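3.2 Worked example (two chains)
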Amino acid sequence: MPLFAVIAHDVPNSIEKRLAVRPRHVARLEKLHAEGRIIVAGPLPTSHDTPPTGFSGSLFVLDFPDRASMDAWFAEEPFVLEGIYASIEVKPFLQTFLKQS
């Protein structure tokens, strides 16, 4: 299936709302991961502080049959529905390298 690189950009000062909605967001991602559709996914913190003091968005590389089905999945994403993601940038992706453990 085609791979898509997705950068979802947060609204400014999203951390409190992001943390409140995170359990619903993670539950959907866990289901997508169990289906084998997540190549990589994670948040983009504004710095490497622990714990993070803020986020600029999220990065995903996802495996969907087509762009329309991926867009439909994102339409139900809690971070979209709750206004945490200001915009979503999508590009076709070809995986060339994979880190070996």
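3.2.1 Second chain
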Amino acid sequence: MPFTPLSAIRSPLLNSSDLEHIEEAAYGILDEVGIKVQEDLVPALRRKGMCFRNGRVVFDRHITRTFLEQERAKGGKVSGMDATPPLTHEITLGVSQYSPHVRDVETGQIRPYTVDTLVEAAKTVDVLADQGVRAGAPGTPMDVPPDLQPVSIYYLSLTYTRHGFQPPDPRSVAACEYVLDMAETAGHPVTLLPVYLVSPLTLAGDSLAAVLAFEKRIASTWVVSMPSAGATAPQATGEAFALAAAEVIGSAMIMHELCDLDVGWEIQIFPFDMRALSIVFGSPENLLMQLASAEVDAYFHGTHWKPSAANIHTMAKTPGPQAAAEKASIMTAGALLGARHFVCAGTLSLDEIFSAEQLLLDCEIAAHVEAVVRGLDTSCDPDACVQDVIEGASRGFLGLDSTLQLYRESCWYPRFFERGLLAAWQDSGSRELNARLREEARRLPSRHTFALPDEVQRDLDRIYRRAEKHFSA
């Protein structure tokens, strides 16, 4: 059936004057405030000729402007939204590997993850691969030493999930070696490690140490930060973007001096709730900041906007109305604008909780949204139409051959959402949605069948035992 897809084109949230003022402010921040770096890097940066003022690396406006001109030349100084339509309407989902807690399917209680419960959750994720889940183990085991945690996540991801080859952030130099070894053993060597900045304007921490320690084993790094307006950045949106731009651009210039790697960077900001005293996801302002971040990042890189409304975090603590509403809102907007992969499915309370019921619900939402962006088959064969109407007028349309041929493709059929009338629901036992989600979530791990080739699993087992011995000593 020739479907006509549904999509949306939006107007920019920032005009050219806004963007120019943000750029000018970023120049001023780097010139007058600068980037704080961890103490052990100062001698090397001084030898490189970098300028320090008040203990911070500062950049003359001309230096920053020249750097941006070079970066923009790579993108061709393009502006506006990417008009290229996605190649498919298929929507896929990722999960978060940060969650330290899991919602118990049997009791509904929120418990710290253990290795055993993370194995069950990983099996659940893998069984849902046929519904578009492309992810590894959805959390962090809390019953192992902190440095062993990322190694455990990756080991369980590779062992129990077919899409678990994307490694977690190593989180420490000590863990990084084992994660890199596992990735090579699994046939997916790591070529990029991220550098997570400390907002505001600080280049330091474990991720930076890992990049510098394993520079020879990777090809590139990616500089990113999470400034929250009003907490670690100015409250005014434009000013928050200026700080975000300054800290990633300044840090990217420093990374070029510290290592011989390709250095990428990304500008983004996040909302902060002054009453909850927390960065907040799933909110209207979070959706708008995702969209605006795409515009600002594209402006500084000289590229098209990306369809960036793809983070479906929520602050809801349980599966239910808030989580479903927030995730569906962001997923619908993002998909209409071209996004096709959405992250943090099954995740609740930012990154604190994984819920198998919520993951099932997110799969249902994704299928719903996928049907929306697929669009409609609006073709009409005049001769066939007349014949169908003749037959349908005399004996009804339900029994027509054309109805039987087309009805499955013309309508989306949910797995859990209700479609029938009240009497049919009552006759089937009046079972509520949450009860059916729990029942399905209980069954999922028992359906798990994925296994690695024996020789790969043996090698991974050896690496993990070596890591256990190291971090348990």
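3.3 Remarks
The radius of gyration is 25 Å.
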